[in-house]
């Protein structure tokens, strides 16, 4: 390297910091690293965490530990499944429903980001990703309502189908506002 020939390193600059590994008693939890665990264990751990959060959304109870362990897998699954169900369009239709998927996906995530930024600007103590996690899991009642409405529509469209879907949407709305 021709430009480094005239760079001199002074010998009197003290080295700071501790580079040795401390010797002493420590718990096995300190040695635990998820980089060394099998992929199956990682996936099962994440699926159990998402399942616990789904149960918590269905039966809310106060838990600050649940809020600390945020994840975006559950909100992603909920958002994608809701967008896929809303995509609609039949096989013989010229409208393939492509824009609806993108619109639902973008509206949910952009809305969650705007609400999160608003809470941070107003002095909220919740972290950015914790807020996204909570708002994403709040889409569960909408997704359940959409799933039930799609199943009712498979049975046929009519006045009774409309009334059942109206009751389902009303029940999910009441559930989400509890």
What does this structure look like?
By secondary structure, the chain is mostly helical. The protein is 63% helix and 0% strand. The chain contains 8 helices and no strands. It has helices spanning 28-31, 39-58, 64-68, 73-87, 98-121, 128-137, 140-155, 159-176. The chain is globular. The mean pLDDT is 77.
Strand content: under 5%
Give the overall silhouette.
globular
What structural class is derived from the secondary structure elements?
A: mainly alpha
Largest sheet: none
Number of strands: 0
Following the backbone from N to C, one meets helices and strands in this order, namely: HHHHHHHH
Q: Which regions have little confidence, pLDDT < 50, spanning 5+ residues? A: none
Number of helices: 8
How confident is the prediction overall: mean pLDDT?
77
In whole angstroms, the N-to-C terminal distance is 68 Å
Strand and helix layout:
Elements: H1 28-31, H2 39-58, H3 64-68, H4 73-87, H5 98-121, H6 128-137, H7 140-155, H8 159-176
Index terms:
mainly alpha, globular, 8 helices, 178 residues
Describe this structure in a few short sentences.
This protein is mainly alpha-helical and 178 residues long.
